[in-house]
Amino acid sequence: QVQLVESGGGLVQAGGSLRLSCTASGSIYSINTMGWYRQAPGKQRELVAQTTRGSITNYKDSVKGRFTITRDNAANTVYLEMNSLKPEDTAVYFCYAEVQRWGSLIMNDYWGQGTQVTVSS
Question: Which of 13, 51, 87, 88 has the greatest count of CB atoms below 10 A from its CB?
Fold first, then answer.
């Protein structure tokens, strides 16, 4: 199996910063894209940022210039540095990874359990 474990969420005042991390472990042959989604109460889950194995990145427009996604391929870990946080960034943040398991020829998506980020005004 494959597990993704997130850490780094919490409560912060508007304008503050947080750093999320997510590490994948288990029967992993390779990981393609890794990234972060978020889901606020009553809203659909939305893509925040993603990065390919070659570090090509993509961001939601509203976080560009404030959030930075990076990854450590050797450690199967993805990070999300969040600066200048706003109350509208409040959500549960989920990491995901496109993983090829040992013995498999296909990629599957795996998700973390989610970590709460709350930004107070």
Answer: 51
